[in-house]
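Severity: low
Component: inverse-folding endpoint
Summary: output formatting inconsistent between runs
Steps to reproduce: submit the following structure tokens with default settings.
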């Protein structure tokens, strides 16, 4: 376990979980860190080497689509060979054992899906999808390396863009409404591996807390959400989630 939570508190949480509660989970880049995918902020984060303004905005894309696509092509190369870690796998198992369980992710890497989670709300899109910048058509594209940089729409010839949400862009309305609903009606929300600074995702746990849900944070470092958390697990998701899961397994059987 970890130094910020007592054995007693841990048992209280497991009891809550076993009471067939409505559970929501919000994940961020930290859950994929142990799979070898860099996070955005922090010591080895992508934003230490790259400027978000140059690569993750619509204006960067209209200025230099090739540069932006080269960056996404490079990231596809990092993500393609890696596997889900024990943290992803536990969440996939929880979807099967808890009757009311929902997973909301800010990640675009597709690792929750690869781990076996089926109902995933992807707030910021998916790196394995492309969108026609003219027609808006969204298609799966698993190429690595991409055959053409930048790629073009096979139907109209316009530029394709990554189907992800860049800074200054609105999240898909329907997806966001679903996330708001799940957050405001859950009884427990796990917030795993996110720095909780990017809006509107960062407001989801606050919405849950305001509606009376217990907030469980799993992160090696404190975040702006820590003061609002009922349980703070300081450590790696790939270690804490499996140890929680072991307790749950014992209590459910
Ligand atoms: C571990 C670990 C381990 C490490 N285990 N944990 C209100 C106020 C101020 C600003 C705004 C606002 N509303 C909107 C904005 C603007 C902006 C925003 O939030 N800016 C803030 C940064 C200030 N938001 C937007 O622009 C959003 N759009 C929007 O709201 O539209 C309407 C609007 C626009 C403009 C103004 C007002 C309204 C869109 C946000 C899109 C974010 N896009 C990105 C890129 C996606 C595509 C891609 O990947 O290329 O999404 S940015 C990047 O940050 C990515 C992530 O999903 C997102 C969140 O990052 P995350 O997941 O939290 O990662 P990190 O790296 O920050 O944290 C990792 C954590 O893991 C750390 O805490 C580690 O400690 C931990 N960790 N190892 C567990 N083993």
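Observed output (run 2 of 3):
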């Amino acid at each position: 376990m970890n130094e910020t939570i007592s054995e007693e508190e841990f048992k209280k949480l497991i009891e809550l979980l076993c009471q067939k509660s409505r559970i929501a989970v919000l994940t961020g880049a930290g859950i994929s860190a142990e799979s070898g995918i860099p996070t955005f902020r922090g010591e080895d984060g992508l934003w230490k080497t790259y400027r978000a303004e140059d690569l993750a905005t619509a204006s960067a894309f209209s200025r230099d689509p090739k540069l932006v696509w080269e960056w996404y092509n490079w990231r596809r190369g990092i993500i393609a060979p890696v596997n889900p870690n024990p943290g992803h796998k536990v969440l996939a198992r929880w979807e099967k054992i808890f009757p009311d369980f929902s997973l909301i992710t800010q990640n675009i890497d597709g690792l929750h899906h690869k781990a076996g989670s089926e109902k995933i709300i992807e707030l910021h899109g998916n790196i394995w999808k492309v969108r026609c910048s003219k027609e808006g058509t969204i298609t799966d594209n698993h190429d690595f390396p991409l055959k053409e940089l930048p790629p073009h729409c096979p139907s109209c010839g316009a530029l394709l863009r990554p189907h992800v949400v860049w800074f200054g862009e609105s999240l898909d309305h329907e997806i966001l409404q679903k996330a708001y609903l799940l957050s405001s009606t859950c009884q427990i929300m796990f917030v795993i591996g996110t720095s909780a600074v990017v809006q509107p995702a960062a407001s989801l746990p606050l919405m849950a807390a305001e509606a009376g849900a217990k907030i469980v944070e799993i992160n090696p470092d404190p975040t702006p959400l820590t003061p609002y958390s009922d349980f703070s697990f300081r450590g790696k998701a790939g270690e804490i989630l499996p140890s929680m899961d072991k307790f749950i397994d014992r209590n459910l059987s």
